What does this fold into?
Amino acid sequence: SLPRGPAAGAAPARARASGGRAPPAAGDAHAIAQACASVDGLVAAIEAFDGCALKETATSPVVRDGNPGARLVIVGEAPGGEEDRRGLPFVGPAGRLLDRMLAAIGLARDDAYITNIVFWRPPGNRNPTPDEIATCLPFARRQIELLAPKVLVPVGGVAAKTLLERSEGITRLRGTWRDYHT
It folds into this structure.
């Protein structure tokens, strides 16, 4: 289950994600994200947002795919090259694996909502920096809050550590149920 709570913990989470300080754009992102009353409005706000330097080097924003009414939300770390070209999350090799994994449990891509922590491709497919994560995190958190999924699946170490506010590696975090608080 995913308990719902106030977004009061958002500022400390932003600060932790960027090593103790939130980049200036993170505060803007938080205010913009909180002002969005719908997923479509939030997606438009993300696409218009100029506070993340990754936008300058990316081909397109990669915000979402799938069904906004789904009970399952899957969150990756950031788009790769194929995702950047197509503007959709999880369409490259990792996406093909995700599709097979969903099929193995009787689900299709339309049975889930798929997004990322960071919405623009980091150059060379490097991991997003703490500042990039902190800048985009308010949008990711608001997206989850608006979607109100029954099950939230962070995919990969960056997504899991960021959303769960944990420092353990993915090997220690995987395979266990955890509560997520917005």
